[in-house]
Amino acid sequence: MLGPVILAASRSDRMRRLISAAPVTKRVVDRFIPGETVDGVLPIVRELTDNGLELTMDVVGEDITTPEQAEAARDAYLELIDRLKPLELGERAEMSVKLSMFGQALPGGHELALANVRPVVEAAAEIGTTVTLDAEDHTTLDSMFAIHEELRKDVPGTGCVIQAYLFRTEEDARRLAAAGSRVRLVKGAYKEPAEVAYQQKHEIDKAYVRILRTLMEGEGYPMIGSHDPRLIAIAQELARTAGRKLDEYEFQMLYGIRSEEHLRLAAEGHRMRVYTAYGTDWYGYFMRRLAEKPANLRFFARSMITKG
């Protein structure tokens, strides 16, 4: 399996330098990351929302080694919120954050991450939108869920992400499928040991459907994070069976992947949110996109050997 190899490369400084220096890299990365600055990404925000789509925006960067870097990540999100305010998009443009960016892995990281993310969540609420806490590797999840619970006391719309490949997730889903909750379900993109996670695609897919059924039958707001046509069709059927209206759940897909499907779902009346990342520290994000989907790797390989 190539996925674990690519994930290992995402942590390699040597591979970072090699891929970053490749002449075609920028053209390929631009498919997934449409800008390096707020100014660079705002035209994409306007284009997507004009086409009936919604966004969740991610400032890329996870290799935080100092409290000052964590504060800089906080400030980058606060700048984004400030620039979104005059657009008056409300929840059509929300934000996704990784707590590792806010200092979670540093000494005293739980408290540090909570202190840094809280002003972002509060500022987002002030402009009528929300923040979703992304899931990272399994060792960070108890901290993430505790921070999520704490933030929801003051900002109930704060969302979180759960990962179908983890054994624990079915229980997490039952707990989270409550009124007022917002939960994004993804398959999972980190290399996890067999002791905590399913390793085979068919096992992960079956777990995804079981967990999604729990969310659809619950009282919260499910967010279906998948590009898989079969899972999207199953999600629609589960929503119908649960009696959900089109505005009582949403689909989420990555910017640059299956863009025509984004528009098709939106045209059918579904809420379709595009996960849109931007920033200069793109390497880790980009490599995980390659690891998640073999077609992404084939696209990159073709670009590496194609002139222009």
Automatic annotation (TrEMBL):
UniProtKB keywords: FAD, Flavoprotein, Nucleotide-binding, Oxidoreductase, Proline metabolism
UniProt keyword Flavoprotein, yes or no: yes
SUPFAM superfamilies found in the cross-reference section: FAD-linked oxidoreductase
Pfam families named among the record's database cross-references: Pro_dh (PF01619)
Cofactor annotation: FAD
Coiled-coil intervals, chain numbering: none
EC top class, as a word: oxidoreductase
Pathway(s) this gene product operates in, as recorded in its UniProt entry: Amino-acid degradation; L-proline degradation into L-glutamate; L-glutamate from L-proline: step 1/2
Known EC number: 1.5.5.2
Domain annotation Proline dehydrogenase: ranges: 45-301
Stated name of the protein: proline dehydrogenase
